């Protein structure tokens, strides 16, 4: 048996800037355990890495209802995590984590130090190619969460560039507990019910075994946008028409359009509309019907409104269940066998409006082969053509909504995890080996899409519109299925050998064999190009990864601790890569220490980015600068819906990264702990989707842009000459590329203050803040590095695909404890986001500064012209909320918690890029004052 060293803890200094008692509360001397970021046993105070630890008590104080909810409250996490937002795009139904705003692909998620399988999704957005679903982790099973914020590439995997989040479950758990929880706002909306519990028996030391099982079951009610009262409703109604008496001019009562000029194919002149709807729904087009533009053909014309607001979600309906079981058995005094199994299932349902066909040309893309053009044009003589019988009958195009078919979608995600292994001590080594299988499955059902062969009868057979809509099967519910898995065998061992002035030398070695698989199968009708408005997402790939790693700890002096680690990874199709990490901690006194780390990373492209796969997608509200506002163009050119193609690229090379951290931890007084850490991360050759705007504005990439080749749709110059290839956009090909890279740096601050109030109990306070100094990005090699911090990056520099990057995220909490009562108040802060449109691709194809620099909304794109009237500084405002949490332990074996989130009912700031919702659900929420009551009973 390896001899265990017992070391003196550094007084009042926490590795992550929190009290040691938060990790090992009642221990006279800290026990050595394996801490995230290392395979060597140590105490929390010994690591040179910046690690934030959330104990079980910390988790309870947050009032979090799920792991996703918990992660959303952490300042170090960026805004790009999909915490089940109202639309979700390609990540609908997922909850992911993004450290340092670098995306889920750079944030490694572990359970008990081992990987979980990525979700079976192919998200083409920046940094989202690999997504770990937090919904698969049961909150009730967690003992603590450890967040390594300086990267863990040399220990856990070369792709842990931004950091590691390690969810650690209970172990050697005895007894049982059960909890019930209910949450809702003051109007009983946004309801959520939860029951969870755990039961364990056997003592590993006395009985030679321990087994426990934990479960978590929850149900969430649907909340409509009308239920989201904590938003800037009146401003939003005026600026973007949210929840107004106008939703859409496309309804089950058709609107007819004629060509601008005969034979042009550009049907943008209102001719007439069916007005047989309820008179209360008849509207006259006007810019007062936001966001209708002055160039809209409906201006001054009558039409029937479609009221779709009731079908827009602020929160989708869902139910989920998780179960996790773990068992350990002592084979002998030195060897323990363990096994772990878990299963999770989440079902989410999203409402949505019925599908439409519109006057604009649409291209339906099969998986292979050329696209199929569709435009609902009624020829002369068609029974619904309103020009029949006039002096000059002409073909007309039609807008029509298939309201007899349900819209929306549903998602079912399941995850299965099986682990078995042995651990023990022999010949002076502590060792651990395991065989892991983890799979994620996804089944998505999208309702009511239009079936092209039947809709085409509109003009191939001159079938009346209502007869087309009444055909059985004219709309179809289509599926998208996926499966992702990881099979892994790993072995690692650690020992101590030799002595240095500061103590024994620590050594760890290990290796992994891993196979990754990803299989995404679209609906056969989508593959065949028979579904209007839905694109293909597909992948069928696997690869093997072989890794070895080592780590050494060198306590060269009593005050100086040095760590070094290295990892070698060999991915199929790539040369092997070595990623090093080194850390140093200098502790001159028990009250002060300096620490720092340097590490490198290597991330191979994901399976969906390079191996037999691709994702088609839609660009919505896309501003075609070539046509928008030009004579002969259409209002749709300013807010175009068109398809994009994110194609795999077998020539991609791996991303590389370099990370540096430096920090101090000190205790200026016996009741104060402070840590300040600086981080700097550099990523090069990033695998990213080329920006659609970068493609369309670069003359050298014109071959990737498809426009209508009917010359009748082309624009003319000042002399009246046709401008070649200037027709309406149809599609843009945006392949994956090795982009220019990202540079980000910032400062993390953690301050803990403990005060004894004598007979009045104690008061513990803690400030956690993350301040981003810069976040520079170049989309393509050779582009300038432009700082995007404090902005919505894709609007500030429209050649990038980076989202919102707040400069500051912080939380300040204070807990007053006395006898059986505990009261916690927490102030949360998210800084503002700018929508300045500063940089774009110039006429010469290079990225440069706009002259003048304007606001994206109102200046660059006119779909929200009133935005700068309300927000002349062109910013989404900062958001500050206050939470309260009360716990009562006066009943035997029982804890009752009562939480009020956003107790001041602070409204979510208005965000113009989320026009339907009016707020950014990744940074803010619209629940307002939100109540949670929970009771826990132990037995």
Automatic annotation (TrEMBL):
Residues 396-903 form the TonB-dependent receptor-like beta-barrel domain. Its main location: membrane. It is a multi-pass membrane protein. Residues 1-24 form the signal peptide. It holds the Pfam family TonB_dep_Rec_b-barrel. Belongs to the TonB-dependent receptor family. This is TonB-dependent receptor.
């Amino acid at each position: 048996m390896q001899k265990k060293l017992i070391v003196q803890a550094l007084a009042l200094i926490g590795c992550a800037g929190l009290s040691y008692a938060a990790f090992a509360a009642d221990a006279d001397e800290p026990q050595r355990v394996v801490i995230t970021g290392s395979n060597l046993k140590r105490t929390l105070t010994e690591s040179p890495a910046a690690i934030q630890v959330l104990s079980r008590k910390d988790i309870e104080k947050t009032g979090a209802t799920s792991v996703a909810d918990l992660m959303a409250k952490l300042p170090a996490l960026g805004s790009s995590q999909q915490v089940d937002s109202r639309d979700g795009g390609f990540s609908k139904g997922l909850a992911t984590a993004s450290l340092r705003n670098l995306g889920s692909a750079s944030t490694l998620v572990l359970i008990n130090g081992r990987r979980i399988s990525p979700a079976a999704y192919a998200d083409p957005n920046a940094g989202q190619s690999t997504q770990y679903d937090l919904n698969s982790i049961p909150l009730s099973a967690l003992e603590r969460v450890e967040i390594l914020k300086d990267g863990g590439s040399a220990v856990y995997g070369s792709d842990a560039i931004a950091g590691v989040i390690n969810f650690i479950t209970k172990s050697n758990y005895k007894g049982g507990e059960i909890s019930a929880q209910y949450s809702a706002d003051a109007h009983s909306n946004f309801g959520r019910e939860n029951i969870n519990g755990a039961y364990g028996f056997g003592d590993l030391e006395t009985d030679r075994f321990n087994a426990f099982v934990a479960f978590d079951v929850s149900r969430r009610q649907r909340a409509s946008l009308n239920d989201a009262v904590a938003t800037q409703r009146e401003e939003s109604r005026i600026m973007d028409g949210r929840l107004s008496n106008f939703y859409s001019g496309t309804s089950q009562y058709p609107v007819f359009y004629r060509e601008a000029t005969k034979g042009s194919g550009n049907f943008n002149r209102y001719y007439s509309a069916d007005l047989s709807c309820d008179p209360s729904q008849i509207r006259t087009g006007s810019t007062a019907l936001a966001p209708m533009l002055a160039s809209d053909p409906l201006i001054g014309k009558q039409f029937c409104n479609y009221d779709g607001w009731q079908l827009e979600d602020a929160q989708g309906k869902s139910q989920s269940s998780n179960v996790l079981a773990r068992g350990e058995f002592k084979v002998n005094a030195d060897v323990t066998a363990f096994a772990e199994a878990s299963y999770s299932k989440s079902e989410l349902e999203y409402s949505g409006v019925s599908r439409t066909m519109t006057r604009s040309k649409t291209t339906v893309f099969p998986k292979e082969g050329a696209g199929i053009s569709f435009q609902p044009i009624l020829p002369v003589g068609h029974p619904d053509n309103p020009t029949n019988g006039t002096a000059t009958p002409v073909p007309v195009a039609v807008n029509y909504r298939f309201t007899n078919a349900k819209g929306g979608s549903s998602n079912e995600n399941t995850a299965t995890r099986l682990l078995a292994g042995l651990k023990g001590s022999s010949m002076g080594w502590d060792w651990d080996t395991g065989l892991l299988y983890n799979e994620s499955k996804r089944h998505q059902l999208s309702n009511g899409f239009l079936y092209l062969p039947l809709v085409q009868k509109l003009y191939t057979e001159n079938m009346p519109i209502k007869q087309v809509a009444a055909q059985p099967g004219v709309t179809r519910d289509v599926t998208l299925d996926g499966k992702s898995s990881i099979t892994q065998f790993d072995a690692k061992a650690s020992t101590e050998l030799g002595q240095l002035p500061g103590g024994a030398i620590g050594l760890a070695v290990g290796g992994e064999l891993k196979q990754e698989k990803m299989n995404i199968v679209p609906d056969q009708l989508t593959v065949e190009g028979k579904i209007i408005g839905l694109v293909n997402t597909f992948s069928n790939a696997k690869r093997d990864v072989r890794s070895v790693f080592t780590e050494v700890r060198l306590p060269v002096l009593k005050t100086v601790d040095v760590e070094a680690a290295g990892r070698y990874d060999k991915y199929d199709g790539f040369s092997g890569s070595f990623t090093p990490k080194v850390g140093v901690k200098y502790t001159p006194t028990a009250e002060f220490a300096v620490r720092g780390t340097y590490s490198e990373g290597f991330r191979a492209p994901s399976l969906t980015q390079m191996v037999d796969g691709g994702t088609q997608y839609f660009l919505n509200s896309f501003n075609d600068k070539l046509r928008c506002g030009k004579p002969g163009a259409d209002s749709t050119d300013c807010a175009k819906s068109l398809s994009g193609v994110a194609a795999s690229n077998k020539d991609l090379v791996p991303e590389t990264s370099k990370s540096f951290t430096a920090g101090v931890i000190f205790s200026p007084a016996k009741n104060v702990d402070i840590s300040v850490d600086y981080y700097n991360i550099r990523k090069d050759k990033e695998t990213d989707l080329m920006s659609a705007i970068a493609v369309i504005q670069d003359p050298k990439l014109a071959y990737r842009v498809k426009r209508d080749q009917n010359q009748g749709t082309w624009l003319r110059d000042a002399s009246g000459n046709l401008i070649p290839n200037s027709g309406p956009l149809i599609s843009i090909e945006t392949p994956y590329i090795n982009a220019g890279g990202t540079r980000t740096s910032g400062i993390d601050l953690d301050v803990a203050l403990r005060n004894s109030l004598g007979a009045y109990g104690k008061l513990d306070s803690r400030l956690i803040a993350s301040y981003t100094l810069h976040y520079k990005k170049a989309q393509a090699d050779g582009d300038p590095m432009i700082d995007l911090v404090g902005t919505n990056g894709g609007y500030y520099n429209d050649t990038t695909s980076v989202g919102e990057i707040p400069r500051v995220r912080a939380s300040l909490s204070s807990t007053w404890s006395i006898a059986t009562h505990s009261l916690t108040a927490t102030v949360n802060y998210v800084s503002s986001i700018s929508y300045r449109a500063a940089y774009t691709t110039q006429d010469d194809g290079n990225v440069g500064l706009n002259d003048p620099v304007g606001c994206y909304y109102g200046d660059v794109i006119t779909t929200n012209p009133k935005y700068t009237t309300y927000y002349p500084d062109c910013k989404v405002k900062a958001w500050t909320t206050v939470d309260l949490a009360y716990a009562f332990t006066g009943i035997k074996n029982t804890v009752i918690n009562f939480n009020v989130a956003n107790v001041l009912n602070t409204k979510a700031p208005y965000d113009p890029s989320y026009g339907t919702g009016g707020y950014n659900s990744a940074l803010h929420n619209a629940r307002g004052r939100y109540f949670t009551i929970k009771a826990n009973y132990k037995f």
